[in-house]
Amino acid sequence: MRILLILVGAMTLVTNNMKYPETKRDAVVDDVHGVKIPDPYRWLEDRRSPRSRRGWRRRTSWRAGFLAQLPGRDKLIARLKELLYLETLLAAGALGGRYFYTRRHKDKEKAIVLLEGGRRRRRARAHRFRTR
Q: Are residues 98 and 39 in the same domain?
């Protein structure tokens, strides 16, 4: 808890003098039931456009640089990994005569979904789901 308070205090001191990267604004305004709603950053929603990709890369590198300079960051990350990266095996759920359950290894960030069952008994197979 002490580390978290130190981190929040350090972030407050650092963020007072921050200069965010410039982001272009478009003159896009929606009219919803007679109400004008500006949406100057709509261009960022198109993930495939080169303009949007450049903008995301610029902000990602800025954010990484900001986070790297925070004092106590490495200790906080190590402690959070110690607390959150646990070996887990969640209870199975039945669907269509098969049992699905998730397992996460303590050195992995994402869990895997395991399947067991069907017409005959067989060993569990791991199925990885993509996030994109």
A: no
The answer to whether residues 106 and 85 touch, using CB atoms and an 8 Å cutoff, is yes
Q: How many domains does the chain have?
A: 2
What single-letter amino acid sits at 82?
Answer: E
**47 with 53: CB under 8 angstroms?**
yes
pLDDT in tens, 24-78: 888 999 999 999 999 998 888 888 889 889 888 988 998 888 888 888 888 888 8
Q: Is residue 69 situated within a structural domain?
A: yes
At residue 65's C-alpha, the angle toward residues 77 and 130, to 5°, is 65
Comparing CA positions, the residue from 80, 77, 57, 82 lying closest to residue 67 is 77
- Axis crossing angle, helix 2-15 with helix 73-84, rounded to the nearest 10: 140
Q: Phi then psi for 127, rounded to 5 degrees?
A: -120, 125
What pTM was computed for the model? 0.49
State how beta strands 98-104 and 93-95 pair: antiparallel
β-partners of residue 52 are none
DSSP character for 132?
Answer: -
